[in-house]
Design goal:
This protein is an alpha/beta fold and 393 residues long. The protein folds into two domains: 2-45 and 309-392, Aspartate Aminotransferase, domain 1; 49-298, Type I PLP-dependent aspartate aminotransferase-like (Major domain) (Aspartate Aminotransferase, domain 2, 3-Layer(aba) Sandwich), CATH 3.40.640.10. The chain contains 14 helices and 13 strands. Helix 2 (47-59) runs antiparallel to helix 11 (298-330) and helix 6 (156-164) packs parallel to helix 7. It is globular. Bound molecules: (2S)-2-hydroxybutanedioic acid. (2S)-2-hydroxybutanedioic acid binds at residues 13, 33-34, 127, 129, 180. Homodimer. This is Aromatic amino acid aminotransferase apoenzyme.
């Protein structure tokens, strides 16, 4: 059987991780995969997570199956983290998922099963793994304009025009905050316009929120999502805890469904549970239980929020530092957008050849489309980094 197979072309982000690890140059800089790093270049376990894990391990009495929906306490707490305390509970159902990717996949498969030829519109550009996930799940994929590479801004007018032309009942993918890969985000007024178009055109919003707390703060980063929850009749959300709780390898995520009413929400969640059962059955428990432990304890929650906020502020400082250094080294304002972007990423607008040159000659690793992970920037090496970038322009 295997002899008939072609070698698969690996995921570019993960391939870059491998290249970086194999590079023996001492001065190498990893701006590739979206993993938070501290000033030592480490991705430590958050102190609040460590405490919750200890508590969890000493109190867990059994490892029996939990159920298809996963940890219901986690589902409740994470839904409140995303939607706030005032959402309409009667219409919302949540199912724990194996990471944000798992949530994207099961929701997509549920939607593909609900409607023949179901089509999803994704921003151009979007996270490269969106396409394989949605395509494999059976959705047809189309794109709408999102980013102006020249200015580093959202092409909002073009985006709004394109959304107005999407056929009724199609699905529209929106990044809840901290757009990956560009770092350019919608303002709350733009979210409101998007909400009007979605309602007018009878389109289903599919929100991918993987970086809540990394942009403008936990509440501000959820503002667009919460606004939509108040105006659209139906919505689906794929949420990841990988980054904001730094539980990457524990695979903690959630699929949140909002129906027109409780009956429809129940039908949808029953379909979602079936998709999960057919794919992996039940989600892993440990990480979700740890996140729940944090969110249910005032003390641990406070500690986690402080840690998260310091990660966010560190990324903002690095953004300003890099924008300043690039302004100086290039003698231009070309890269000023880096300071305005929010979240973990910015796309610098370099060519693939320039990205290769940076990797080969300067041991600087970024994704081929020139996306950088801001958290990987070296605190005390921004001038050298900016000089290297300027040298390849
Ligand atoms: C990224 O975009 O780098 C992260 O979301 C990690 C991944 O799985 O691609």
């Amino acid at each position: 059987m295997f002899e008939q197979m072609q070698k698969a072309e690996g995921d570019k982000i993960l391939a870059l991780m491998g290249l970086y690890r194999a590079d023996e140059r001492a001065n190498k800089i990893d701006l590739g995969v979206g993993v938070y790093k501290d000033s030592q270049g480490q991705t430590p376990i958050m102190t609040s997570i460590g405490k919750a894990e200890n508590w969890q391990i000493s109190h867990q009495a059994s490892k029996t199956y939990v159920g298809l929906a996963g940890d219901v306490g986690f589902n409740d707490a994470i839904t409140r983290l995303a939607l706030g305390n005032d959402y309409d509970k009667s219409r919302i159902r949540t199912q724990q998922a194996p990471g944000g990717s798992g949530a994207l996949r099961i929701i997509a498969e549920m939607l593909a099963g609900a409607k023949e030829g179901a089509t999803i519109w994704v921003p151009d550009p979007t996270w490269p793994n969106h396409m394989p996930i949605f395509g494999t799940a059976g959705l047809t994929i189309k794109t709408y304009p999102y980013f102006n590479a020249e200015t580093g801004q959202v092409r909002f007018d073009d985006m709004a025009e394109a959304l107005k032309a999407i056929p009724e009942q199609d699905i529209v993918l929106l990044h809840g905050c901290c757009h990956n890969p560009t770092g350019a985000n919608l303002t709350i007024d733009e979210w409101k316009i998007v909400g009007e178009i979605l309602v007018e055109r009878n389109l289903l919003p599919f929100i991918d929120i993987a970086y809540q707390g990394f942009g403008d703060g936990l509440e501000a980063d959820a503002a667009g999502l919460r606004h939509l929850a108040g105006v659209v009749p139906e919505m689906v959300v794929a949420l990841s805890c990988s980054k904001n709780f730094a539980v990457y390898c524990d695979r903690v995520g959630a699929a949140i469904l909002m129906g027109r009413n409780g009956d429809e929400a129940d039908k949808a969640i029953s379909q979602l549970a079936l998709v999960a059962r057919k794919s992996y059955s039940m989600p892993p428990n440990h990480g979700a239980a740890v996140v729940r432990t944090i969110l249910e304890s005032d003390e641990l929650r406070g500690e986690w929020q402080t840690e998260l906020e310091s990660m966010r502020l560190r990324m903002l400082t690095l953004r300003t530092g890099l924008a300043d250094a690039l302004r100086q080294k290039t003698n231009s304002e070309r890269f000023d957008f880096v300071a305005e972007h929010r979240g973990m990423f910015s796309r610098l607008g370099l060519t693939a050849a320039q990205v290769d040159q940076l990797r080969e000659q300067h041991a600087i690793y970024m994704v081929g489309d020139s996306r950088i992970n801001v958290a990987g920037l070296p605190d005390d090496g921004l001038d050298e980094l900016a000089a290297a970038i300027a040298s390849v322009l």
